[in-house]
Write a structure and sequence with these properties.
Blueprint lengths: L3 H4 L25 H10 L2 H5 L18 H18 L4 H10 L8 H11 L8 H12 L13 H7 L5 H6 L5 H5 L5 H25 L4 H7 L1 H13 L5 H29 L6 H5 L10 H19 L2 H23 L6 H10 L1 H10 L3 H12 L8
Helix pairs in contact: 2-5, 4-5, 4-11, 5-8, 5-11, 6-17, 8-11, 11-14, 11-16, 12-13, 13-14, 17-19, 17-20, 18-19
The chain binds magnesium ion.
Amino acid sequence: MIKENLVLAPYACHSVQSRGRIFKEKPSKTRTEFQRDHDRIVHSGSFRRLEYKTQVFINHEGDLFRTRLTHSLEVAQISRTAASRLQLNSDLAETISLAHDLGHTPFGHAGQAALNDCMKDFGGFEHNLQSLRIVDKLEEQYPTFDGLNLTWETREGILKHCKTLDAMRLGDLGKRFLEKTQPSLEAQLVNIADAIAYSTHDLDDGLRSSFLKHEGLLSHVPIYKKYFDEVMKEYPQITLRRAQKEVVRRIIGYLVDDLVTTSLEKINSVTLKSVEDVRALHTPLVSFSDEGLKEMKTLKAYLMDALYRHYQVLRVMNKSSRVIELLFDEFTHSPNLLPPNFYIRSQHEGVQRTVADYIAGMTDRFALREYERIFNPVYEERN
Ligand code: MG
């Protein structure tokens, strides 16, 4: 086991100083507490299902587009690299990254919006809170407890945002949302690595799908133009697609560099003896420079207009929302159509929440198949 105190800064999360797990367990002889959390997530069913959940493009639209799983791996890669440059705990940063999207519904944000709407009178649905619910309660892997019994620090990192009522219910973990203080630097880092990952891979996927146009990017996204001109000057003979790949790579490099440099300056401007000093602060220390933030915002705004609101994306999302709504209505009116374990749970957990858990856990293709099973009278089960 690597001696964390040799490589980590005092302001990092050290696993020996962990606030621990809900259910006490003997320490592992070979892994740190955060490495153990990492392995629990990788072995969970919810993690495997990320493979067939939409990021932006529905899973069956093409094998090369990102899914929630590959998105999470890219977030982990960026987090790990930046964490070690900041002398933060890269095991913890990777662990939070792999878990951060576990609670996503099928069909991306359209699925989340539809399910939240269905649940508006029953406490709502929020994917981030659902990720925590999965690791705390819904995974059934261990003989003596529900959930994965992860460390406090991983759970802190999973919970990115939280409404006041939920924060009050979450006790110690929700406290920072009431006191408006900050989580660990690892948690702050993953939050931004998530945005770097999706903005740049959606740019790449958007170009691949041709929903995003090279000319549009050149005129609306200055950082794209800057790196495109730079790449073409260095490699005038390369194809457009290869140049675009290099542009995406350079944008990631620029954003990560900007993030690390700016964050280091901010960290060095205050005295931090431990992660508790970080948690007492009211402003984040991991952040972009003003310039980096501006580039990021411009890119995100363009993606919103040209990709996320592209009519072909909206058509698929609209259709997907209908699938979620119809399944929710049917299961809540007739909970006996649920698989037996969910039906039993609905009797003590509440029908709506159980149906939301059931639907949120579905992959895109499972949701479509379930829709067929429930509504198509001549549906025949394939394989
Ligand atoms: Mg994400």
